[in-house]
Specification:
By secondary structure, the chain is mostly helical. It is built from eight helices and no strands.
């Protein structure tokens, strides 16, 4: 199984293998980077298939495994995935919280660590996702007639984008 299969949309075909692989990782290497990576892919696949509760559980397992393994970038990426899963369900405030948490975790990576090479991309994506969650929330607030609150969320989104460009 390759990530290309996931990108190509073969979710149903890949799901059984991901389930088995994640169980094997739990049995033989719990709390490892491998377990985290497999649970991340499983959560992504389940999310694409609309299996939200299962996707949330797999994303939670990914975060826990990456944290246990001390893999900061993997932990932050998994928290970001939790945010993306929340976005799919229109839970914009919860998504924004996850994206802000992911940014905070990324900021714990120091320039001397191997993981630091990915930080510019990570910060750009997490700032984009934070702003996207806020602007989507602003749209929903505007549609509900809460224009002042919508404008406040847009201002926060602008702040997030500007902060990331510094």
């Amino acid at each position: 199984m390759r990530s290309l299969q996931l990108k190509a949309g073969y979710w149903d075909e890949v799901l059984p293998a991901l389930r088995v692989a994640a169980r094997c990782a739990d049995d033989h290497r719990p709390g490892s980077r491998m377990a985290g990576a497999l649970y991340f892919q499983l959560a992504h696949c389940l999310g694409e298939l609309g299996r939200e509760e299962e996707a949330d559980r797999a994303a939670d397992a990914a975060v826990a495994s990456e944290r246990a393994a001390g893999h900061t970038r993997g932990e932050a990426s998994s928290v970001e995935l939790q945010g993306l899963l929340s976005m799919r369900r229109w839970l914009y405030a919860a998504a924004h919280e996850r994206f802000a948490e992911a940014e905070s975790i990324y900021r714990g990576i120091t320039s001397g660590q191997d993981e630091a090479v990915d930080l510019p991309r990570a910060f750009a994506l997490v700032a984009y996702n934070q702003a996207r969650a806020l602007t989507d929330l602003a749209e929903a607030l505007h549609e509900a007639g809460e224009n002042a609150e919508a404008l406040a969320k847009i201002a926060l989104a602008e702040r997030d984008v500007m902060r990331s460009s510094l």
